[in-house]
Design goal:
The structure holds 2 protein chains of 2 kinds. By secondary structure, chain A is an alpha+beta fold. Chain A has 3 helices and 7 strands. Chain A is globular. Chain A starts with 13 loop residues before the first strand and ends in a 10-residue tail after the last helix. Chain B is 27% helix and 32% strand. Chains A and B meet through helix 3 of A and strand 8, strand 10, strand 11 and strand 12 of B.
């Protein structure tokens, strides 16, 4: 568990989320992209908007980590807090990891049941979709 | 003038059940002729590279008429007219060859196999005009004259042919939404659809006053026209609106949902190879996906529900999602035991409703449909 001193307090700070390409249908991200998978220990990885940008976060994910992404979407710290989801700074250092990421943060779902996790993820996805894809910019927006 | 049968086009689908051609489908016949003419020209030019021009009267000599409409779905028999004094050229007839190449191309595309070499990118692009009026459950069987069996042409085949030549394709759109910005100089506006997408809409000046009214009053408008889709089937923009009108009463309750047909979405899951997400993510079973497609079609039609967005999950479930006016609804289908776990989360509170439905039991589909309509209908 991240220490409270790492709790993100600026409600306006954007948290960038990379969405797997198969989780994007007709420009809409699946809500499963905004809730942790079973392997994530109920912590959802994001990148801090105060440290990086939507484009840089995308490049970090796809080029440095070599992972696929259908784009960067975002929710704010305040929008997470409204769902009872605290967000924590969780910078990655190298070593021990191969690639450092000072912007890494997590949205903490650990105190919620599996069903609540699904519901909160769906609400976050709705908010992110209404905000629109942040990178690459959709041609139509 | 002498007539000789040229092609049999069998229109299949509910609209064509009375052995009559709906007027709105008639443009398909003209589009078919244009396609044949384009292919015939390409064939001629390919065989006569030393000639700068087509023979005089090449296109004018190709006259097609709607001879009659036979029963057994709507079967327009298209015949060719021979003009007096203008004999068909001796030897190979370019239009007959073009007809055969088109049929072969459609058959190849429907099977995912290699296309005839004669179908250049320029020709493939012309398939965009043929089949535009077809609905999701409709198709045209393109058969030799006098035959009832031939290549099956539907929306998916049309899209596949066009996308072999270019990155986008055009198809009809029918959207509901509010105008969020308008630019008279650019002859366009931005439409925000009920499911939150923002789309650039190019429009003739005729519709601008209504667009401005929607902008000022947040009035719901219906936009019909031609949309540009990318290779993933995403609607990128409305290339040209042919009608912008105020929505009818009650239409605000009709949330359009995903623009891609359910069948196409479900089929896309079949393309995922084992390990598509991580080491443990499985491939999807074709029979299970056919079951899911039929189930969803029945439930959506039966309860008049908007189309969901359908996604795979790393665990091998199929996930259907709806963004309703007040609820986010997610149904996770277990394709092995044929059951669904459905969750409805109210958007502006922590209210949560859940349901587990065994879909192999009688009444299961109805139970699922009722839960969905309770959360996706007007509230």
């Amino acid at each position: 568990m991240a220490a409270d001193r790492n709790l993100l307090a600026d409600d306006d700070e954007l948290l960038f989320r990379q969405v797997h390409p198969t989780f994007v249908r007709d420009g809409r991200p699946s809500s499963q992209a905004f809730r942790p998978t079973a392997k994530d220990e109920r912590k959802l990885s994001v990148a801090r908007g105060s440290i990086t940008t939507a484009a840089t976060a995308f490049q970090h994910h796809t080029e440095r980590l070599g992972l696929p992404s259908g784009g960067t979407w975002g929710v704010t710290v305040g929008e997470c807090r409204e769902q009872g989801l605290p967000a924590f700074s969780d910078p990655v250092t190298a070593p021990p990891e191969k690639v450092a990421d000072p912007a890494h943060a997590i949205i903490d779902f650990t105190t919620h049941s599996r069903n609540q996790v699904d519901a909160k993820g769906a609400r976050l996805a709705r908010t992110a979709f209404e905000r629109g894809r942040l990178h690459p910019f959709a041609e139509s927006v | 003038m002498r007539k000789s049968p040229f092609v049999t086009l069998i229109f299949r689908g509910n609209r064509f059940g009375e052995a009559a051609m709906p007027l709105e489908a008639l443009p398909e016949l003209a589009a078919y002729r244009e396609l044949i003419v384009a292919v015939a020209k390409a064939l001629y030019q390919g065989a006569n590279r030393d000639r700068q021009r087509l023979p005089k009267g090449f296109e004018a000599g190709f006259l097609l008429v709607l001879d009659r409409v036979e029963a057994g779905s709507a079967v327009p028999v298209v015949s060719r007219l021979e003009q007096p004094g203008l004999l068909f050229p001796p030897g190979p007839d370019w239009f007959d060859r073009a007809r055969d190449v088109v049929e072969q191309g459609i058959a190849a595309a429907s099977k995912g196999s290699a296309l005839p070499a004669e179908l250049s990118n320029e020709i493939l692009g012309r398939f965009g005009a043929f089949g535009r009026t077809l609905r999701d459950d409709e198709s045209i069987v393109v058969a030799q004259p006098g035959k009832r069996a031939g290549a099956v042409y539907d929306r998916a085949v049309r899209r596949g042919l066009v996308l072999r030549a270019q990155a986008t394709y055009e198809d009809d759109v029918d959207l509901l939404g509010e105008v969020r910005a308008a630019d008279k100089d650019a002859e366009g506006f931005v439409l925000r659809t009920a499911d939150g997408r923002k789309l650039d809409v190019r429009t003739p000046p005729l519709f601008f006053p209504l667009a401005l009214r929607s902008l000022e009053e947040s009035a719901l408008v219906r936009v019909r026209g031609s949309g540009t889709y990318n290779a993933d089937g995403e609607l990128v923009k409305v290339a040209m609106a042919t009608d912008v009108s105020l929505a009818e009463e009650g239409e605000e309750q009709t949330r359009p949902g995903c623009p891609t047909p359910v069948e196409t979405q479900v089929e896309s899951l079949a393309t995922l190879a084992p390990g598509w997400y991580d080491d443990s993510s499985p491939a999807y079973d074709a029979a299970a996906l056919r079951w899911l497609s039929a189930l969803l079609k029945g439930v959506l039609d039966g309860f008049q529900l908007p189309r969901p967005y359908i996604y795979p999950t790393p665990e091998g479930l199929a996930r259907a999602e709806w963004s309703g006016a007040n609820w986010e609804v997610v149904s996770s289908f277990n394709l092995e035991d044929r059951s669904a776990d459905v969750m409805a989360a109210r958007a502006n509170s922590q209210e949560l409703h859940e349901l587990t439905v065994p879909l192999t039991q009688p009444g299961g589909e109805s139970k699922l449909g009722r839960f969905l309509i309770e959360h996706l209908g007007a509230h």
